[in-house]
Design a protein that fits this description.
It is built from 20 helices and 22 strands. It is of the alpha+beta class and 703 residues long. The strands form 5 sheets. Strands 1, 5, 6, 7, 8, 9 and 10 form a 7-stranded antiparallel β-sheet that branches. Strands 12-13-14-17-18-21 form a 6-stranded mixed β-sheet, sandwiched between helices. Strand 7 and strand 8 form a beta hairpin. Helix 6 runs antiparallel to helix 8 (204-224). The two termini are 47 Å apart.
Length: 703
Amino acid sequence: MIKKQLLYILPLALLAAGFALLPFRSDELKPIVPAVEEPAFELAFPVNDTITILKPERKNKAETQMVVRLLDAYHYRKLPLNDSVSNVVYQNYLDALDNMRLYFTAADIAAFKRYQYEFDDYLKEGELAAPYQIFAVFKERYYQRLAYVDELLAANKFDFTLDEEFVFDRDSLPWPADEAAMNEVWRKYIKNELLNLKLTGKTTEEAIEVLQKRYKQYKKVIAQYKSSDVYQVFMNSYTETYDPHTSYFNPITAENFDIEMSKSLEGIGARLSKDGDYTVVVGVIPGGPAFKSNQIHENDKIVGVGQGEDGEIVDVVGWRNDDVVQLIRGKKGTVVRLSILKATDGPGATPTIVTLVRDKVNIEDARAESKVYEFLYNDKVFKLGVINIPSFYKDFQAARMGNANFNSTTRDVRKLLADLKKQQIDGLLIDLRRNGGGALDEAVELTGLFIKDGPVVQVRDYQGRLSVEKDQDDGVYFDGPLTVLTSRLSASASEIFAAAIQDYQRGLVVGEQSFGKGTVQNLIGLQRYVPQEEEKLGQLKLTIAKFYRVSGGSTQHKGVSPDIEMPSRYDKSVVGESAYPSALPWDHIAPGKYRPVKIVDKQLINKLRKQYKQRLKDDPDLQQLVNEAERMLANQRKKSVSLNEAKRKAEQEEENKLKQQKDESVYTKPEPDDSPPKELKLKDLYLEESLFILADMVNQLNA
């Protein structure tokens, strides 16, 4: 689970997040008059006088009070600001500063307890001394740890033959009792970092040099923290009590956000956040180089950045996100190399180098595409169409200007369907595995290509008002056998489409349980509510509505469960809405008035499941897929790593051996060419198996 710190968002985040899909008025609240004087600030307990103490800004009082009022008035979750919420804010803030429990001691936490049930009152009053006091202590402890790291590295007394382990999943462990206990944690922490570097081929001396540079950078980063940074971390500790998609952006972050949304950038096309000292990928933008490469995915960590084909890879662990982004960005056509810790490889893994050519990030570069697979299966030739939809896109500006040929997902898919029908396909598969969402009306219209008419999704807003988005077109553009392929990364609008196809019993959903993002966000500028404030204020992104299926259940939290579930490589406690403690719960409302077409009933699903399970037993390639998924899940669930070099090398060699076996298997076999139909052998086993399921479905429906 990503601990959001100083969130930095790259292009087109709104599209994937499901923004502004509903009419919304936020002008009912009366403005707040800002304070005239700087707030008083006194340290509640001593901090080393060499530390630069950051203090809240004058404008933050009115800003805080307005955020509290906006959340109370317009957030979907009606959450009273009381002692219970105060405790959650308190815990969130400690996690945001020190989620691995590497800085604060038990004595520090005991001192902070005085604030545990006071934050609700502080927020209402706009009083911010407490979070800044805690940050001042954090800053002092940070410098103390850096000094201790310098001592450790200078002494170089690391014995990699000992049978020791480092527990990295530390958020549920007790806080270190004192400085001696903290030193022991850090000894193992640094030893693990050195061993990780040694496993990449560096000598101990070279690894020490890398860490010395890294921690020198840490000192620079903490010195660059501004009051607005501390304020953003604290305010997000508050907003996250409502749900994980509600966030506060300080003016600098908000300005960057607006810039990214208003122009096409040259880079790799990824959304980045912070998880402790690491820069983490929280989303890959369709159309960008990262998306096209299919080598970078959600929760991957970027630990190094290199320029060109052979430029030195700069270690970026501990850097500010802004600085990492500046290294990654560059002119179109230039090469950037990223050192990536793959989320699916788990802790203790060595980085993978990914080479990308920078390009303009344009969502329309990732438009729907189709392909026909003709193959021999069970002594019969099948011709099946596949349409890959990377996002639900729409050129809103061209549509508003009356351009009759504006680009949209539905228009593109309609054309692709016409071509596929000319080729006389036996069935169709819609691939949504990397579709993080997009325009709601496109999901509704796309559903309409496969059903006659009727409701597609129900939307309930923060006032409890229910609206229904319907397919108004009574035409059906494809009435043959249909499957929808989902993954854990299929979210928002893609879940609406998959759920509607499933509820109407129009098609079969296969793959993995989807992400579970069933909420709508809106972005509010705070300046309009504090008009007399001359200094720039930030923005609030808050959840205002929730999606419900026509059958009544929410897509929130649970997502869409496939009719036939395939092995998943993602740990649900790490990737997906259910990974967030504050995620809005699943619930249900009354079903909409709709008429299922009943092409896919329980009897058909049971027959197809039986055939799938038989292949699981008999097909060695499918068995390998299961084994690989289980191995990745086991890696992700590790809580600790060995600090014995020989053991770690043996683990690394075994991991490399398994990866090599995978590479030498069906994954490297060529896809079918223009020769007569033969057995289907794809590098993409999820797609291959989905096509077999579709072929079984065609047989059953034609029987």
